[in-house]
Amino acid sequence: MTKAKKEELLLALENVNPFNIDNDLSNIANEFELTFSEIEIEYNKPYLKSVKLCKKYIGKDYEIGKVLYKLFDKFIDESDNISRQDILQYIKNDLGYSGSTPDEINYLLNGSLGTLRCLHLIKNITYTVNQPFRDNKEPYNKKSTYYTMEVKNWFVEQRYFIQNKHLLKTLAPVLIQYSRSSISTSVPQFFDKIDSILEYVLQPFENHNENFHIEKYLIGNMEHVDEEYETTLAKEMKIRIIDKDKTDKDKYTIVLDEQEIHTSIIKIIPKRIVFDNECKYLEYEDTKNNFKKILLSHIIRVMIEESELPNNMQDTLSKNLSFKTSYIADGKYYYICHPKYSYSFVNDSYFKEDTEKIILELPHTALEYFKIKPLADMTIYATDKEKKTFKQFQENRDNAKITISGPHFYVTATDTIENATSIVMHVMQSVKIIKPVELKHSVHENMKQFNMNNNL
Question: Which residue in 160, 229, 291, 323 has its CB near the most CB atoms, within 10 A?
Answer without folding.
Answer: 323
